[in-house]
Amino acid sequence: MTRLSIxxxxxxxxxxxxxxxxxxxxPEPPAGLTLDQAIAKALANNPTIKAAKAEVDRAExxxxxxxxxxxxxxxxxxxxxxxxxxxGAIPAPAAGAWVTLNLGDLxxxxxxxxxxxxxxxxxxxxxxxxxxxxxxxxxxxxAAWITQQKLLALRSDAIKSSQSDVLVVQRLFGRGTAxxxxxxxxxxxxxxxxxxxxxxxxxxxxxxxxxxxxMGDTAWLANSKAKR
Length: 228
Hints:
The protein has 228 residues and is mainly alpha-helical. It has six helices and two strands. It is rod-shaped, with a radius of gyration of 37 Å.
């Protein structure tokens, strides 16, 4: 067996072990997905943005309740006079009410409100920074996905081209104008193109999974669990 035939056999064996690159469980890419659509999905569904929005909501609630800080120590009492005064005496008040307010809480309220507002503004700034980071990451992931999509198409075309070359060389070999070595080289080129396609499929699936992650698409996770 020649070195060329050994290399051809090894390549075929590796392809059988590798198998087809299939994105298990991943959702199918929507037809004609644009960058603007991908960014819109990410801004609406990305888990990191959702967590930042939840922090803003919490800070807004804290800021609103801090304005009522002095009322946390308020105490109220109501008293009623049930004693009947003697004849001719001045009657005592029938009832009274008292409200007690903690002076320390009252004086510290402005500082508490200022601190709560500062935390709210920090949460809002963090949300903006998170949104910008997600937009940048989504743009990068989308570009990588489009690149891998085009590369995958090129790899598919390369296989068709190399298969056509095999047919041409085989005809030439039948006419005696090509050698067996030429035929083996052509077949090896087909095997190499198929191996390149398998690798391209893997890279494409990885790039799509990254974009799905940025867009925050998690519905397919429940479907994957249900199939188990």
